[in-house]
Design goal:
The chain contains eleven helices and eleven strands. By secondary structure, the protein is of the alpha/beta class. It has two domains: about 100 residues, NIF3 (NGG1p interacting factor 3)-like (Udp-n-acetylmuramoylalanyl-d-glutamate--2,6- Diaminopimelate Ligase, Chain: A, domain 1); about 120 residues, Udp-n-acetylmuramoylalanyl-d-glutamate--2,6- Diaminopimelate Ligase, Chain: A, domain 1 (3-Layer(aba) Sandwich), CATH 3.40.1390. The protein is elongated and about 55 Å long.
Amino acid sequence: MTVRELYKKLIARLPDSLAEAWDNDGLMVCPNADAPVRRVLLALDATENVVDFAIENRFDLILTHHPLIFRPLASLSEDTPVGRKVIKLIESGIAVISFHTRADRVDGGVNDVLADLLGLSDVEPLGEDGMGRVGYLEEPMSLEDFSAFIKARLGAPILNVADGGDLVHKVAVLGGEGKDYLKAALASEADTYLSGNLGYHVMEDAPELGINLIEGGHYYTERAVLGFFEELLSLMDPAIVCHALASNNARWM
């Protein structure tokens, strides 16, 4: 299967209509649309380490969640991190595809994977545009126990937790940046809202709002989407070999 053929299949499953208007994802770099795709490297971000790994190990394509090119490039040179990576990729003949907010919203994507990891049942879209998810734990648990459970399930070394004064039972989730969906979480009558980042002032308001708030880390609440990407690729072409690589340059200390 060629880059062109694979991308056509992918956007049939992850159409432009699912992306936010401000987003920039899709085909980021394509030195040769007719090049065959046999080996795909999966990562949350196309960091320089990821790009170098792909080059050294002869991958044909990198599939990421966060866009390699998010803002328009004023120039293309080795003087900027993005420019340097794009030049390396073109010289090495490696394509890059990124699916960002459409992978957040799509059935089976980031937020369905996150809900599944937590074992939520009766899962429904969060808010009118369906970016997040909301569902129920099998049994209510304390915020302390739920936090320990999250750390184990996400592999997150640390959480930022604000106690809203309730047991955890109905949980809203949104991987990555979630402060814009706090109102949707409150409207859903969730007692707990888990996201990657919510921000200082949002967290400080938890007791007044009456909702438990948990920041699990942007990376840790989204990285499980790589399994979704791998499953898509295996269905589209079982001959494609996938490898997932960690891309978290920042770490808790």
